[in-house]
Write a structure and sequence with these properties.
five-stranded mixed beta sheet; 44% helix; alpha+beta; three-stranded antiparallel beta sheet
Length: 445
């Protein structure tokens, strides 16, 4: 059985010209000696079985009828033109399909060999996008369902699935390498907009927004096509939001977001950053807890003491007050991008804020220790952070101008007080535009 090829290692050797194929065509390795029809996509030819394609797709039946192909005997002769006037290749009638050769290749491999990936990798996106695109066009439902399941696994619709995704991309030593397991979100966003799959857009936009602005603007390098020969689809229409710029050094083209998608990404990034500061102001205003154990022990009989200056929490709880102050400073440090470089990832920042209360790797100048916080304050803080993460997940579609379910709003959805705060802060300064050359390879992880 033929295995799914690795597009990164494919070469012209996989597509050698045949003596029976016109010089203008490239014979793919999907070339069955007992095939009875030749699909031609661009300059690529595929000798396959008409019945196999018709079995999986009613659309192919219509395509073959319109093409008037293979109406004679099932075993093809060696004539160059059949009795109905169709061109012949390797003794079989041809049918032109107006699809990318790489897309056709991946679809045929999936139909003949099955569609599966032994180990998930970002390179899978080349086959995934091709099969999803053509299984949608030709109504090959079982392949479309498989593609949709993989796409929504990589860019999920629930917070629990997102957390599982992030855990899978984090090594045992804490190294975070999402681009090994998942394709660049620019590719996912453009594919979802092209094929009308709104379910993946919220998490894909959020995924992208965690990059710095320069990396967002730099775009993503497309995965190499299967065919080394020129691909008529090497430059897709920008109407789907994908502008491909072919480079003269032989590298794959760079894919950028449309202007509208860029605005959504950067605006959502700003709102994600703003959320943490508003959360801290709201959540720490009444900390330590009114039930703080340290405050209860320190207060005179009959109740807790007066709240400390600048807060509404009880007096006498210096340990918890100092711990919350430490958490405040470290969360702001994370938001500033100093700690982990994930300054626009509130879901991750909130996880860090929750884990701080249990960590034992802080230093008091003498030894490693944990925060001195009572059990009540710990429990309430964890609950507060958990609710905040659920709130963030619910706000993500609104941050990126998407309706419920991920559908794109033509007008950016209002975001209430946060939107007003962005305007009040005058975040955009006027100045001269400067052209900056960015090497996307240096920016990729």
């Amino acid at each position: 059985m033929r295995t799914l090829p690795d597009p990164l290692t494919c070469s012209t050797g996989r597509f050698l010209p045949s003596l029976n194929v016109p010089k203008a065509l490239i014979r793919s390795d999907i070339w069955f000696s007992d095939g009875n029809i030749v699909l031609v996509a661009g300059s690529a030819a595929f000798k396959v079985h008409r019945g196999q394609l018709e079995r999986h797709s009613e659309v192919f039946k219509d395509v073959f009828l319109v093409g008037r192909a293979g109406m004679g005997p099932s075993v093809c002769d060696e004539n160059t033109v059949n009795e109905e006037g169709n061109k012949m290749v390797d003794g079989c009638p041809t049918v032109d399909v107006y699809d990318c050769p790489s897309d056709v290749y991946h679809l045929l491999v999936a139909l003949y060999d099955g569609f599966y990936f032994p180990k998930r990798h970002a390179r899978d996106f080349s086959a995934l996008s091709s099969v999803l695109r053509l299984s949608t066009k030709y109504f090959v439902e079982h392949l479309r369902i498989q593609c949709f399941a993989r796409l929504t696994h990589d860019w999920p619709a629930t917070l629990a699935d997102w957390d599982r995704r992030e855990a899978a991309a984090t090594a045992a030593n804490g190294t975070y390498t999402p681009r090994d397991a998942y394709a660049h979100p620019v590719l996912a966003i453009n594919l979802a907009l092209e094929l009308g799959i709104p379910e993946v857009l919220p998490s894909a936009f959020y995924d992208l927004s965690r990059y710095g602005p320069s990396r967002i603007l730099a775009g993503a390098r497309a995965l190499p096509p299967v065919f080394a020969a020129p691909d008529p689809c090497a430059s897709r229409s920008t109407e789907e939001g994908a502008a491909r710029n072919m480079e003269g050094n032989g590298k794959s083209p760079i894919i950028h977001l449309s202007h509208d998608s860029l605005v959504r990404t950067l605006r959502g990034r700003e709102l994600a950053q703003l959320y943490i500061s508003t959360f801290l102001a709201r959540a720490l205003d009444h900390r330590p807890s009114a039930s703080c154990l340290y405050a209860t022990r320190a207060a005179p009989s009959g109740g807790v003491g007066m709240p400390p200056p600048g807060g509404t929490g009880p007096s006498g709880s210096s340990h918890c007050s100092e711990s919350f102050y430490f958490i405040h400073l470290n969360v702001l440090r994370s938001v500033g991008g100093i700690a982990h470089g994930r300054d626009a990832d509130p879901l991750y920042t909130l996880v860090q804020a929750e884990e701080m209360v249990e960590r034992k790797d802080f230093s008091d100048g003498v030894r490693m220790c944990g925060l001195k916080m009572c059990g009540v304050c710990k429990r309430e803080w964890k609950g507060e952070v958990g609710r905040a993460r659920e709130e963030v997940w619910g706000l993500i579609p609104m941050w990126f101008g998407l309706r419920d379910g991920g559908a794109v709003e033509h007008v950016m959805a209002p975001t209430g007080e946060m939107d007003q705060e962005l305007e009040d802060r005058d975040m955009i300064e006027e100045g001269e535009d400067t052209d900056v050359d960015i090497d996307v390879d240096e920016l990729e992880e």
